[in-house]
Design brief:
By secondary structure, the chain is α/β, with parallel strands linked by helices. The protein is built from 17 helices and 22 strands.
C-alpha cells in the first residue's frame, strides 16, 4: 500500500525545498513529502566544516556560495531567515595568466589583458548586452534572430567578434568560469538568454559592481536549505530515496524508489538536474520533445576547493586573492587545472582561499585522485601567492563532475539547435509532473536564485490545481 500525499517533491536542493516551503506556507492543509536520493539535503549547495586559526572550526560552502542584490528570490529567503550577508573582498591587485608563465597584475581585470585586447573585450561585452535584450526571457525561441543564433556556437561568435589572442583567451576564461564548459559547446541563443536572465553579462562577471559574486552569507549559503527543511518539518524530508519509476494517469502519480518503497500523490514536482531525469523509468513516456531536448543538455564541469590559513597573507601583500588562468587546452592544464581563485575570508575574519577547476581543466583532471588534485592546487597557490600558501590549516575539495546526483555543475547548458527545434519547454508541465531546478529558472538561470524562483513557480502552479 502506497503512502498517499497531495504533492510529492523529488529533490531536496534549493528548488525542491523552496517548493515544499511555499506549499506549506500558503496551503498548510496540503500533505507533502520530499524525497531525496542523497544522504543529505542541499543538492548543489554543500557545507563543510574546516579548521581555522586559534584551533577553531567554521563552515564553508563547497557548493553554491555567492548571491547579489539583484537576486530577489534568494534575497527574500535570506531576509526571512534573518541571515547576515557581507561583501566579497575585491581590493588589491588581481593576477591573470592567459599564457603559461606570462602573469599580469592589475586592479582592473579587463585592462590587464592589454590596450587593444581590452578595447575589443569592452566592445564585445557591449555587443552581447545589446543582443541579449532581443531574447525574450519566457520564450527565447521567439527572438527575431533565434534560428541564426541557435545554429551558432559561442565559439563562432567569439572568433567573429574578437581578433587578438588575449581577448579570445580572456573570453574563454569567462565562459568556462560561468558555465563549466568551453565556448564551442554552447548555443549562442542559450548563452544570450542566460545573460539576459541575469540582467546582462556584466552581472555574471563583475563582482565589484553588484555582480553574481558580490555577496556571501555569514555561515554559508547552505544554511538556507537547512532552514527551509526546519520550516517545512524534518519529518517531511526523506533521505536515501532515489527515484526509479514514475507512473501517472489522469488521477494520480505513483513513485517507486530504489529501496522498494512506493508513494502516491495528486501531483509531483521533479526538482532534479535534467541529466538525472534519464535515470527514471516513466509510464507513460515523457513527451518526445522533452526527451529529445534533455539529450541536448550538457552539464558543466566544476571542481571546487577551499584552503584555510592562519592569516590573509595575500592581503598583506596588496593582492585581492583573485587569480584567473586560461585552462582551455592540454598545455595549460598539464601542471595545474586551477582556473579561478578568490578570497574566501569569512565574516569572522578566518583566512581562506576558494578556487575552481572549470570546463576543460576540470574534465581533464576528473580521473585523478583528490590527493593529486590537492597537490596541484597547493603548488599553484604557492607559485602565485608565495610560500605561505603552501601551509594551509585545512583543505577540502569536491569534484562535482563525479557527483552521482548532480551529474556536473554548475548548470545544464543547451547545445545548438535545441531551443529553436522544441522551444524552451523545460518548464512546461507533463500532465501531473511539474519541473523545478535552476535550469528551469526564468531569472538568474544557473544560480541559486533561479532555483528558488523555479520552486516558487511550481508551488504556485500546483496550488491553483489543488
Amino acid at each position: 500500500m502506497e503512502d498517499t500525499y497531495d504533492v510529492i517533491i523529488v529533490g531536496a536542493g534549493a528548488a525542491g525545498l523552496t517548493a515544499a516551503y511555499e506549499l506549506t506556507k500558503n496551503k498548510p492543509e496540503c500533505k507533502i513529502i520530499v524525497l531525496e536520493a542523497r544522504d543529505r539535503i542541499g543538492g548543489r549547495l554543500l557545507s563543510v566544516s574546516l579548521n581555522v586559526k586559534n584551533g577553531g572550526k567554521e563552515n564553508f560552502d563547497l557548493g553554491g556560495q555567492w548571491v547579489c542584490s539583484s537576486q530577489k528570490n534568494i534575497g527574500k529567503l535570506i531576509e526571512t531567515f534573518k541571515l547576515e550577508t557581507y561583501d566579497q573582498y575585491t581590493k588589491g591587485s588581481k593576477l591573470m595568466e592567459l599564457s603559461l608563465g606570462e602573469v599580469t597584475s592589475h586592479t582592473d581585470q579587463i585592462s590587464s589583458i592589454g590596450f587593444f585586447s581590452s578595447i575589443e573585450m569592452f566592445l564585445a561585452l557591449k555587443k552581447i548586452d545589446n543582443m541579449c535584450k532581443e531574447v525574450p526571457l519566457t520564450s527565447p525561441e521567439k527572438s527575431p534572430h533565434a534560428k541564426q543564433w541557435d545554429g551558432t556556437t559561442v565559439e563562432t561568435f567569439k572568433n567573429e567578434t574578437l581578433w587578438t589572442n588575449n581577448a579570445k583567451r580572456a573570453f574563454d576564461v569567462a565562459v568556462s568560469n560561468i558555465f563549466g564548459l568551453s565556448s564551442s559547446q554552447i548555443s549562442l541563443l542559450y548563452f544570450l538568454h542566460y545573460c539576459n536572465s541575469a540582467g546582462g553579462i556584466a552581472k555574471l562577471i563583475d563582482a565589484e559592481n553588484g555582480g553574481a559574486q558580490a555577496t556571501k552569507v555569514k555561515g554559508g549559503l547552505h544554511q538556507v536549505c537547512c532552514l527551509l527543511k526546519d520550516a517545512i518539518g524534518e519529518e517531511k524530508v526523506l533521505l536515501g530515496h532515489a527515484i526509479t519509476k514514475i507512473y501517472q494517469d489522469d488521477n494520480i502519480v505513483r513513485i517507486t524508489t530504489s529501496n522498494g518503497k512506493s508513494f502516491e500523490s495528486k501531483y509531483c514536482i521533479l526538482a532534479i538536474p535534467p541529466k538525472l531525469v534519464g535515470k527514471i523509468e516513466f509510464t507513460p513516456e515523457l513527451p518526445y520533445e522533452r526527451r529529445i531536448l534533455m539529450r541536448q543538455i550538457v552539464m558543466g564541469c566544476y571542481t571546487k576547493f577551499l584552503a584555510t590559513y592562519e592569516t590573509s597573507f595575500w592581503r598583506e601583500s596588496g593582492l585581492s586573492g583573485q587569480l584567473t588562468r586560461f585552462t582551455d587546452n592540454k598545455e595549460s592544464v598539464i601542471s595545474s587545472p586551477v582556473s579561478l581563485v578568490m578570497d574566501a575570508v569569512t565574516k569572522e575574519n578566518n583566512a581562506a582561499l576558494v578556487g575552481f577547476f572549470t570546463g576543460f581543466g576540470a574534465s581533464h583532471w576528473a580521473s585523478k585522485s583528490d590527493d593529486e588534485k590537492k597537490l596541484a592546487v597547493i603548488e599553484t597557490l604557492k607559485s602565485f601567492f608565495g610560500s605561505k600558501a603552501g601551509k594551509p590549516l585545512d583543505f577540502a575539495i569536491k569534484d562535482w563532475c563525479q557527483d552521482e546526483w548532480s551529474g556536473g555543475c554548475p548548470v545544464g547548458i543547451m547545445t545548438p539547435g535545441g531551443i529553436t527545434q522544441f522551444g524552451d519547454v523545460l518548464r512546461k508541465p507533463c500532465k501531473r509532473i511539474h519541473w523545478a531546478g535552476t535550469e528551469m529558472g526564468s531569472v538568474w538561470r544557473g544560480y541559486v536564485d533561479g532555483a528558488v524562483e523555479s520552486g516558487i513557480r511550481t508551488a504556485q502552479e500546483i496550488a491553483k490545481k489543488l
